[in-house]
Amino acid sequence: GTLDDGREIAVKQLSVSSHQGKDQFMTEIATISAVQHRNLVKLYGCCINADNRILVYEYLANKSLDQAIFGQRSLNLDWATRYDICIGVARGLAYLHEESRLRIVHRDVKASNILLDSNLTPKISDFGLAKLYDDDKTHISTCVAGTFGYLAPEYAMHGHLTEKADVFAFGVVALEAVSGRPNSDLSLEEEKVYLLGWAWKLQETSCISELVDSRLSEFNEEEAKRMVAIALLCAQASPALRPPMSRVVAMLSGDIEVPTVSTRPGYLTDWRFNDTTSFLTEAADKSTDESHYNSPSTGSTVGGAILSPEIATTPMFDEIMGEDGDEYGLLGRTSATSMSGFIS
Q1: What is its main location (predicted)?
Q2: Fewest C-beta in 10 Å: which of 163, 164, 171, 240?
Q3: Which residue has the higher pLDDT, 149 or 90?
Q4: pLDDT band at 11 (very low <50, low <70, confident <90, very high)
C-alpha cells in the first residue's frame, strides 16, 4: 500500500492465535520503534481494532535475500554486492546486541528475513521472535523458536539462548551468500547436502573457490576466503568461541585479522538429545569417534559454559574474542519479554 505522503508500505498482521495482550503488544511495538538503524527495517506504525493487530513497515522493493539468491527470478547479485550485504547484516546485528539502548536477540536471522531496498541495502526484518536481554544474566532458557538450519545447537537442543544464537545464524547466512545455495539441499550428492559440513571440508582442503556460486563470473578470492573463515567462526559449536558481531564487522571490513579456524562448526546431528550438557562438551580424542561427547567433568568452565579443552584453546579463544572479549559477555545476556504470532 501507499501512505498519504507517498511512502510505500508493507502490512503485517498478527495471528489471531497469538496470546499477547494489548498492553504487552503496545510495549513491544514501542520497543521495536525505539530501535533504529540503517540495516533494520523501519516500523512506521501499528493498528489495533478488536482482535486485529496490524504492523506497518517500510516497503522494500527487492524483497528478501533468499529470493534474490535462490529464487526463480534471482537478482544475479555480483560478488561485491553479496559481500556488502553481509557487512550490512553484521552491522545491524552488532547494533542490536551491543549498541542499542535496548539489547535484543533477534532469534530468527535467516535469508528470508533479510530484505533489500532499491539500492540493495540489507534490512533485518521480522522481530516477531525477538527477545530483550540485560547485562546481569549470561543466558535465558526459553522455548525454542526459529528456523531449522539456522538454529545454534545449544538453543535448538536445550533452549539455551544468548546473542550468540544470532551469530551462529549469521554464519549460515554468510555461507549461503557465498555459495548461492540454501543451507541444505537434498538434491545434491551426500557430502554436499548440508552447507556447513561442505564448507568445513573445503576449508580443510583449501578449496574454498569450489564453494563460491558458479554463477559468479568473477569474485575476489581473498574476500571469499575471509568470508568463509568468518562464517565458520560464527558457526562454532561452543557459543563462547563465536565472536561478537562487532568483531565480525571488523573482520569483514579488514580492520582486524581473521583467526585460523581450527575446529569444525557445530552440527545439530552431533548432539545427544537426552543430555543437557553435551552441547558444549566434546571428547578429547575425536579421532576415535567425532560424534561422541564426554561428561561435563572433562571440560573447563568459562562464563557458566562447559567447554572442551580441545575446542576452547586459550590462543584461539583470545584471538577470536580479543583482549576485551569479556566486556561483550561471552555467553550473552538475558531477555524479559518476547513477541510472536506473526503471519505474512
Answers
A1: membrane
A2: 240
A3: 90
A4: confident
Q: Is the dihedral of CA 203, 205, 206, 211 positive or negative?
A: negative
Domains of the chain in start order, with CATH, are 9-60 (3.30.200.20), 65-269+312-342 (1.10.510.10)
Cβ atoms within 10 A of the Cβ of 161, count? 27
From 5, 66, 78, 108, active-site residue: 108
User: How many secondary structure helices (H) and strands (E) does the chain include?
Assistant: 9, 12
Do 183 and 211 touch, CB atoms closer than 8 A?
Answer: no
Q: 278-319: per-residue pLDDT in tens? A: 334 332 233 323 332 222 322 222 222 222 222 233 344 344
Q: Where are the alpha helices (DSSP H) in 162-301?
A: 164-179, 195-204, 221-234, 245-252
> Using CA atoms, how far apart are residues 55 and 47, in angstroms rounded to an integer?
7
What SS3 state is found at 139? coil
**What is the SS3 assignment for 259?**
coil
Cell digits of residue 140:
535465558
